[in-house]
What we know:
The chain has helices at about 45-60, 80-85, 95-110, 125-135, 190-200, 225-245; strands at about 5-15, 20-25, 35-40, 60-65, 115-120, 140-145, 175-180, 205-210. The protein is α/β, with parallel strands linked by helices. The chain has one domain: Alpha/Beta hydrolase fold, catalytic domain (Rossmann fold, 3-Layer(aba) Sandwich). It has an eight-stranded mixed sheet with strand order 1-2-4-3-5-6-7-8, sandwiched between helices. Strand 1 and strand 2 form a beta hairpin. It is globular.
Amino acid sequence: MIGDLRAETVRIPGAKGDEIEAYLARPLDDGDYGAVVVIHHMPGYDEATLEITRRFAAHGYLALCPNLYSREAPGADPDDAAAAARAAGGVPDDRLVGDVAGAAAYLRALPGSNGKVGTIGYCSGGRQSFLAATSVDLQAAVDCYGAFVIGTPPEGFPLHVRSLADRVPDLRCPLLGLFGAEDSYPSPDQVAELDKLLTEAGKPHEFHTYSGAGHAFFAVERPSYRPEAAKDGWQKIWAFFGQNLSG
């Protein structure tokens, strides 16, 4: 059931105590709510990501999207901030973990929090959602076509990232993965390899791959959008978070 919400920009403590910008959305009604840290994609802290954050609040979650590019370009337009972040090689993994930990702590301290927090991320944010789930106290994580959880970037790729295969044994919560069969990063073979590693490590996970869909099939403003895959993906997300983040 979709309900009323309130949304606003806030300041939260991130990695190493840095104060960073974040977008908070929450239901108006009093309640006992699970919480979601929304990790934005490489294009940044943009309108599409903030809309996703509001969507979680409308569906009964406390939701917070930290601006991971706050330090590179404070107050900048999302495109300019993303360009500055890419020029610097992207968000360092240790800083990402600290920012997500700060976001999770902020959510747990809000009135109406039931203490359970999950993450969701898209593209680079999918990899970061997985990474956070290996280090932060989380109850659920969603990886939407996260590139380079497995595998390495091609030559000339702007972000300095590495495979997280060695972090699989550290996964601290159930993982939901949503992927496109026509994607190259991650490719179906990379998804299968991650599935195998998680199974061998005894880590609870649930993967779904959509035929006819490539990268960014959730992105309604892009040609890559696939309505049927996105609709089913959202249903999988609601069911997964409902199971793992409810009171």
